[in-house]
Amino acid sequence: MLTTARGLSLRQISSGRLSQIPYATSVTRRNSNWARPPSSNARDNVARDEVARLAATPRRSLTLADLLQHGRPPLSKEALLASANFTLSLLPARLASRIQALRNLPFIIVSNPHMSKIYHNYLHSLSTLLPYQQRKITTFEEETQFGDVLADLVQTHTNTIPVLARGFLESRKYISPEDVTRFLDTHLRARIGTRLIAEQHLALHFTSQPVVDEFSEKDKKSLNSGSSNYIGVIDTALQPARIIRSCEDFVSEICELKYGVRPRLEIGGDPDATFAHIPVHVEYIITELLKNAFRATIESGNEREPIEVTIAAAPDVPGRQRPFQEDADSRFQLASQINRIDSHEAIGDANPSSQSITIRIRDRGGGIPPEVLPHIWSYSFTTFSDMDIDSSDSSNLRALDTLTGSGGHISSIAGLGYGLPLSRAYAEYFGGSIAVQSLWGWGTDVYLTLQGVGKID
């Protein structure tokens, strides 16, 4: 397979699925000093007062417009360096706030080896960024070295969710489910932003590299045309119907393996609707919602009844959309707003836009029992037995992190109970929502609303 000098295949670049590339293997590590595993010295270099200072730094919410502000790739030198410095301005405070949150947990919780691993991973990542914090990135060489640091950060935190889940499972005697849910709601939402910031710059870095001379003109045209809809990890012409069909195939295979049947899925409404969003986020949410609908339909004995999916694009109301401009001023206008405080960090701009899309998933699975309904947004830790917890091979734990770019997939129809709350976190991060309406004894309607960024020319 033909690959670039950076080790990326043409298919990976032209498909735009850069967020699913294992960055630790695809980024050229030119400076081994930035690629070493965590060491005790690196951890000790992050003083407690330094973490407290960074964690107290005012932070602003991350929006899709932030990620688009530097323009379409390939970026100019000025825009690429601006993207690197913008990324550097955001990450240290976010990492420090996570370290501080872990320190605020009871000592016996953080002493768990899995929780301790997450804690030291964050310390390591912060220690690799601090040397850059006091200076600007001004050359391509520095930007490439910074890319290596980001690749190490992404790889280091690849398995954060399953490791956290295992840690809380083993520590469940010492912390209430309510406290766990409260911690995870904040931590996992913050993780979405931290990871997305790093992955966006890495994707812009890759797609802004010159194509090597030995590529044919046909290959170069393939690279340019294939990624034309993408700005980093954002697909500016994302078609939900295509993702729904892809997720349907995946979930149907799971159902056929587990139950021997696969329900039908019908798409109605506006299947040709498109908007700007992050495909891997939408894919995760849709997969989780279809898993629930398919499982309920089969286990209620109604597998002959189709799962009905309706796609509705919000009407184009004049004055509502927020236009995206690719001029030089727009690339830097948001950087000056860094000091706007966002007390929650998690939720981005929720202003209405003509690019808002709502997806309804309707099943005939009998509905959600009334006693279960109040708890569907809580992170559940009761579905695993002690044998499951002790098993280092638990496929369900590995399955929790399908968004990490590791190439893994959900391997079980039932997991740890993270599906709905984590899906809601991804939907709400950029101003969307998930609402559930259950008719006990009949079925369930789930309404997923996703906000785009307005028209992108």
TrEMBL record:
PANTHER family: [3-METHYL-2-OXOBUTANOATE DEHYDROGENASE [LIPOAMIDE]] KINASE, MITOCHONDRIAL (PTHR11947:SF20), PYRUVATE DEHYDROGENASE KINASE (PTHR11947). GO terms for cellular component: mitochondrial matrix. Residues 279-454 form the Histidine kinase domain. Belongs to the PDK/BCKDK protein kinase family. This is Protein-serine/threonine kinase. Pfam families: BCDHK_Adom3, HATPase_c. InterPro entries: AK/P_DHK_N_sf, BCDHK/PDK_N, BCKD/PDK, HATPase_C_sf, HATPase_dom, His_kinase_dom, Sig_transdc_His_kin-like_C. One of its GO terms (molecular function) is ATP binding.
